[in-house]
Write a structure and sequence with these properties.
304 residues, mainly beta, Immunoglobulin-like, 2 domains, 13-stranded mixed β-sheet, three-stranded antiparallel β-sheet, 3 helices, 11% helix, globular
């Protein structure tokens, strides 16, 4: 009986059942992507969505024969022309205005159309800002500076991102590079997900710091309608760079914030603990995002 049982076990282990699963047929949808600000020319990228089993060159999915318009109510602001790689761009160079509700209209072959609406928030100027030397850095010729800034938040929900950049010239190019920060002022978070989900008391200790790839973000639920201070320290090397820093405060539309939050959630989720979520879309009749933002920038010369 013992040997018979072992024989049956080996027979069962040798059995293999193959179940073929045919995924449902996927119908592609048009996808529009556009981020606009008062200092950018109108630009929209269009392509068709791909199913989970799609393979090959995704550039074949670019939509090249659409009619793309930017509308302000019933008035057409811009007609965009195709320039390649799925991108449509305005030729006139007319820039978006802040505080204006724009609607993206896209007409596709076959009488299909999609649209989306967003606004670039009004600029939020700094009422005060400063920079001071506070110590030596970890390497020779590196210096630690403390930056402080104050701005006035308007009532209603608002979303902000702030960045510190240094202009660096190399043998290859010259660019503004985002700097890592430390001793970040309370209320700010490293990333959109943390800013949206973490209730932070602005009187508590601030974040230790954010890397040069982490967006520094805050929502105004802790200081709605009030004057808000911001501060952080940054380590600067003056080798190959200008003796100044660029401080940029971005006022984000809710569409911009929600798209980045959901995208960030899925990019960095823990597959054992977190569930993926749908990436935010405000496009009617398709997928994608049409979102505005506005930058306020100041140059901070490094003190002697």
């Amino acid at each position: 009986m013992k040997y018979l049982s072992l024989f049956l076990i080996f027979v069962c282990l040798g059995c293999e059942t193959i179940i073929e699963i045919n995924p449902p047929e996927y119908t592609p949808e048009p996808v529009a992507t556009s981020f606009f600000s008062p200092d950018s020319v109108w630009s929209v990228t269009l392509h068709s969505s791909l199913g989970i089993n799609a393979k090959g060159d995704t550039s074949t999915e670019y939509i090249t024969d659409a009619s793309v318009r930017i509308m302000d109510g019933s008035n057409m602001i811009e007609a965009l022309n195709y320039v390649g790689n799925g991108e449509y761009r305005a030729n006139k160079g007319r820039l978006p205005a802040s505080s204006t509700k724009y609607t993206l209209h896209v007409d596709l072959p076959g009488a299909t159309s999609i649209q989306a609406t967003s606004t670039a928030p009004p600029p939020v100027p700094f009422s005060d800002y400063s920079i001071e030397k506070v110590g030596e850095g970890g390497f020779r010729d590196d210096t630690i500076y403390r930056l402080k800034a104050v701005f006035k938040d308007e009532p209603n929900p608002n979303f902000y991102q702030i960045g510190i950049y240094q202009y660096v010239a190399t043998d290859i190019d010259s660019l503004y590079y985002r700097k890592s920060v430390n001793e970040l002022h309370p209320g700010w978070a490293c990333g959109y997900v943390a800013a949206a989900e973490t209730e932070i008391d602005i009187e508590d200790r601030g974040t230790t710091g954010c890397g040069d790839l982490d967006p520094i973000v805050v929502t105004d639920r802790n200081f709605d309608g009030g004057t808000y201070p911001w501060s952080a320290t940054v380590e600067v090397s003056e080798r190959g760079g200008r003796s100044e820093l660029l401080l940029v405060l971005s006022s984000l539309s809710e569409e911009y914030f929600e798209y980045q939050r959901t995208l960030e959630h899925n990019l960095f989720l823990d597959p054992l603990l977190d569930e993926p979520i749908n990436v935010y879309s405000n496009v009617t009749g398709g997928l994608g995002v049409f979102a505005g933002y506005t930058n306020t920038s100041v140059i901070l010369p490094l003190p002697e």
